[in-house]
Amino acid sequence: MTPRLIVVAHNIRSTHNVGAIFRTCEGFGVERLILSGYTPYPSTPQDSRLPHIREKITEQIHKTALGAEKLVPYEQHEDITTVLTSLRASGFQVVGLEQSPNSIPLPNFTPPKAVALLLGEEVQGIPPSLQQLCDDLLEIPMYGKKESFNVSVACGIALYALRAT
Fold first, then answer.
1. What is the pLDDT of residue 105?
2. Which positions ≥6 away from 51 have C-beta within 8 Å?
3. Angle at 122 between CA 118 and CA 123, to 5 degrees
4. CA proximity to 17, closest of 95, 123, 93
5. Of 112, 113, 119, whose CA–CA distance to 156 is shortest?
6. First to last CA, the chain
7. What does the alpha-carbon distance between residue 107 and residue 126 come to, in Å, rounded to a whole number?
8. Stretch 139-161: mean pLDDT, rounded?
9. CA-CA distances (angstroms) from residue 143 to 146, 147, 149?
10. Measured distance CA(22)–CA(77) in Å, rounded
11. CA pair distance 63, 152, nearest whole angstrom
12. Is the pTM of the predicted complex or chain greater than 0.90?
């Protein structure tokens, strides 16, 4: 049985990465995308951003999401700690996608019934304080010379692996 999946994108800078994450989440049947911290997000009904900023960001996300932002339920939250605590209380195992001495290689991970996949900022990843709030950390094995994948690509690889089990 494939697990229930939620993705939490925390402090992602690029609207193009956010759009690609939306599109990837839609393709893998993720039930909800949570955008936290300073991650850009499409318009919301109670959006307090200035109209021209809201419209510009929504348009930029749409360029790579190609409508997936209208299909994937999403929420925007400033406080990531509250989000992760709430997900855990709802029965989700919080799994961070991060290279760390404590990381489990993605192919060796057996997902539980409900997974909240935490993605971190493009350059610095998931800060140590948030890594401590994760039940597990997963690492995608690298075989080339580069040390990491783009966050939206890593999201796709992880979701594929979680769905394939």
1. 97
2. none
3. 120
4. 123
5. 119
6. 8
7. 20
8. 96
9. 8, 9, 11
10. 16
11. 14
12. yes
